[in-house]
Specification:
By secondary structure, this protein is α+β, with helices and mostly antiparallel strands. Helix content is 30%, strand content 19%.
């Protein structure tokens, strides 16, 4: 993965929260030992430079609990892609991989520094390529957990793959909205709480540790990316996540892993960002503009400083527009 940032790599520390709070440096000391973010002051941003984290620090593990780690790797244009690693009694569970065989192989090799146990389970939190494109290097015969909608998408992606790209298609999908995997050291619940960033977003809940890995349903300080999203349903899915019992630590699929308290605050901030995007598109549409003119005139406020705003603003207008027209299926 590249270690230099493109010249347009800019992300601010402002948010849709009051500026006095948004520009405050928040001291975060994650209770679990070994966390590389522990006891340092951080700005609420997805920008490693403003966060004070050199790119040479990646990839890295963030210890969440005994035998539970977040894995942060840098992807272009310079923010993190996050995977979840749970070490069981006889094997390892991963939720989401990385965006290429090379990046995923690096993660597999790094896991070997934590445990010699084999990888036995893989949860498809997001079916997008930046989380699944490296799955071909995972051990054969592992157990996949995937939502039917994501399985259907992976089949389409596999059929369309060119240039030697390999899309791993799991043999079967989950049959309900919840599955439980006992890895021996803890219980892992796989939840479908509704469509959000994709049609098959899966959450991974560790009730004993009170952790919820949300994959791409939670993009910490990254502009809501809506290429395959369901905007209004996304808000409801986050509300369902916030309402879960036995959860007080929310782990994103992109952006930095925060401490427990800050993670909830940032998830609410991200939810409000989606609400703001929807409201802006509604305003533009109600004013009688065409969609093309709405794209040109959209005002995102402080969200303009979030990662991907320059790329995803137009995408969001088109997607919300389709939802308002009733053409989003």
């Amino acid at each position: 993965m590249p270690r230099t940032l493109p010249s347009r790599f800019v992300a601010g520390a402002r948010s849709i929260l009051p500026s006095a709070l948004a520009l405050t440096l928040v001291a975060t000391a994650v209770s679990a030992g070994g966390n590389p973010l522990a006891a340092q002051a951080v700005v609420r941003t997805a920008d490693p430079a403003k966060r004070g984290v050199p790119l040479s620090a990646f990839p890295r593990f963030v210890k969440l609990a005994d035998n539970v780690y977040g894995y942060e790797e840098i992807r272009q244009p310079g923010f993190t892609t996050v995977s979840l690693v749970v070490i069981g009694r006889d094997g390892v569970l991963i939720a989401d991989g990385q965006g290429s065989p090379e990046a995923t192989q690096t993660m597999v090799d790094k896991i070997k520094t934590l445990t010699p146990l084999p990888i036995k389970w893989y949860i498809v939190g997001s079916d997008h390529g930046d989380h699944t494109a490296g799955n071909s290097v995972l051990p054969k015969g592992i157990t996949y957990v995937v939502h039917p909608n994501s399985l259907a998408q992976l089949k389409r992606d596999s059929a369309a793959a060119t240039g030697g790209r390999i899309v791993v298609v799991p043999p079967k999908a989950m049959t309900g909205n919840e599955e439980t995997i006992n890895v021996g050291t803890t219980s892992v619940k796989v939840l479908f709480l509704g469509r959000a960033h994709t049609g098959g977003d899966l959450m991974v809940q560790l009730p004993k540790e009170k952790i919820l890995f949300m994959s791409e349903a939670y993009l910490n300080r990254v502009f809501p990316a809506m290429r395959s999203a369901y905007p209004s349903e996304w808000v409801k899915t986050i509300d369902a996540s916030l309402a879960l019992k036995d959860v007080d630590w929310f782990i994103p699929g992109h952006g930095f892993i925060e401490d427990r308290k800050v993670s909830r605050e940032e998830l609410v901030t991200f939810r409000d960002a989606i609400v703001s995007v929807i409201a802006e598109v509604k305003r533009l549409k109600a004013s009688g503009l065409t969609m093309d003119d709405a794209i040109k005139q959209a005002k995102w406020g402080s969200l303009s400083d979030w990662f991907l705003a320059d790329q995803q603003g137009a995408v969001a207008v088109r997607k919300v527009w389709a939802e308002l027209d009733g053409t989003l299926k």
